[in-house]
Amino acid sequence: MLLQRLDFLLPYTVKRLTPADVDEILALQAKHSEYHQHYQTNPVTKADILAELETLPSKALPEQKFYLGFYAQDELVVLVDLVLDHPQANCAWLGLVMTEKTKLRQHYATKVLTALRSALKREGYKELMTSSALSDVNAQAFLNVQGFEQGMVTSVYDPKLGHDIQVVLRGIEL
C-alpha cells in the first residue's frame, strides 16, 4: 500500500529497487563522495550497494525494508532506504535519502520526504526516525530544514572505518 500512496502523492514514478538496479544506484551514489567519506575510507562500490540493499537492522525482516527509487522522466532522482516498524511498531526508520547530484537544491528530496511522511501517517505510523554522522553538516542542515528534532548524540562502531563515529539520532512526528 505504501508504494501506491507514494505514486499517488508524487509527480515521480516510485520503484522498489533490487540487485538488478545496482549499476543505476551506484551511478547516483558514486557522485556523493563527501557523504560516503563519513562512513568508509574507499569509494562506494557495487559490493557496497548490494550489501546495502540486503542489510537489515537487528530483529527486522526483509519484508520491512523498502529501498526505493524515485524517477522523473525515467531518470533516477532520489534514493530512499526505509525500514517499517523499526525500531518499534508504528515507527519507520529512514536509513538513507540521497538526491542525484545534478538535482541538488531543486527540492526533489523535500518533495519525496513530504509525500513519504504523509503516506506513512495514512498507514498508521507515528514517527519517522533517522541518524546521521555528526560530522556530516550537509545532512544535519537538511534534516533541520525538514523538521527532524535533534536527539541524542552517540558513538557507533563503523566496521568500514574500523573505529567509532559520532551519530545524531533524529526524529519527526507524523
From TrEMBL:
Residues 12-174 form the N-acetyltransferase domain. Pfam families: Acetyltransf_4. InterPro entries: Acyl_CoA_acyltransferase, GNAT_dom. It comes from the Bacteria. This is GCN5-related N-acetyltransferase.
